[in-house]
Design brief:
Largest sheet: 5 strands, parallel
Distance between the termini: 75 Å
CATH class of the largest domain: Alpha Beta
CATH topology of the largest domain: Rossmann fold
Order of helices and strands: HHEHEHEHEHEHHHHHHHHH
Number of domains: 3
Structural class: alpha/beta
Length: 309
């Protein structure tokens, strides 16, 4: 069987059919709002025909994303093991991980098993990035993929035009959700956790090496990981709960102090507002001095109740 015949069995030749082009051209384009997607697929260890298939699929996905105003990141163009063998393994890990975390969507080509793609799916799951799984109807998709909690949509196809049309329709339907998620998560494009860790570490006169030594017996951290965490925004860093617990222990603080450093002030402000509103409703406006006395009384009662427990 020739390579072209092998690809034909999976429905790749003729991807740019006239009928498909006509259908997509007639569909309304979405309102302009830039989105980013990450394309996950097998790359390492593929034979010639398999690589050709993945590249043709990637080109098809890229055209659909371009038509919908979605910028697609393709690792094969940056960290492909064949074309970019000189890229260090640690750099591949960090570059691809950050790209996944910055994406609004991950598209997974489920045609061949891949350890790397499995890692990328885990990154997406941890960051609550929606996932679209693309697979030929003759391909079996692992339940470890289809069973991922969260938004996971499968696009199956027999013929080339079904691939493009199905993916186009799926992304068009997902787009409002993706835009809403992007806007909601924009608050995480700041460095709160990392900056707080750095402030507490420096205030205690500790180096990153000191933090690593403290955590080495339980959940080993690395100096490189701490440096990236301190220097990255919260969305790109996305540390795990275990990592935050180890860092908090080393800094003699709590996870909440790392995640919400202004939590104490927020609690006091909310209590002050609550006391003021309740007293104003009963007796009218009260002075700052009386409000502070009432607030102190509430806090003391709260402390007593905690000690009783």
């Amino acid at each position: 069987m020739t390579e072209d015949a092998g690809l034909a069995q999976l429905g790749l030749p003729g991807l740019e059919t006239t009928e498909t082009a006509k259908v997509l051209a007639l569909r309304p384009r979405p309102e302009h709002h830039p989105l980013n997607a990450y394309l996950a697929s097998a790359l390492t260890g593929l034979e010639g025909a398999e690589r050709q298939l993945i590249f043709q699929l990637s080109d098809a996905v890229s055209l659909v994303c371009q038509d919908l105003g979605i910028e697609l990141y393709e690792p094969r163009k940056k960290t492909d093991p064949v074309h970019h063998p000189d890229v260090e393994d640690t750099e591949v890990f960090h570059v691809d991980r950050e790209r996944v975390l910055r994406s609004d969507l991950l598209i997974y080509l489920a045609h061949y098993p891949s350890t790397g793609a499995g890692e990328e799916l885990t990154f997406a799951y941890d960051a609550m990035v929606p996932i679209v799984v693309v697979g030929h109807n003759e391909s079996r998709i692992s339940r470890m993929v289809t069973g991922i909690p969260g938004t996971v949509v499968t696009v199956s196809y027999d013929e080339p035009e079904e691939l493009r049309a199905g993916l186009h329709e799926t992304l068009l339907q997902l787009r409002p959700q993706l835009v809403q998620r992007k806007l909601a998560y924009s608050d995480y494009d700041v460095n709160i956790i990392g900056d707080r860790i750095r402030q507490l570490r420096e205030a205690k006169g500790l180096t990153r090496e000191d933090i690593v030594k403290v955590s080495s017996d339980r959940h080993p951290l690395s100096v490189e990981m701490l440096a990236r965490l301190e220097q990255s925004n919260d969305k790109d860093a996305n540390p795990s709960l275990l990592q935050l617990r180890e860092i908090a222990t080393a800094l003699s603080t709590t996870v909440s102090d790392l995640v919400e450093p202004d939590m104490d002030e927020l609690i006091i402000n909310n209590l002050s507002t609550w006391v003021t509103d309740r007293q104003a409703a009963r007796f009218g406006d009260i002075s700052s001095r009386d409000r502070n006395k009432l607030l102190r009384r509430v806090l003391l009662r709260l402390i007593d109740s905690l000690e009783d427990d």
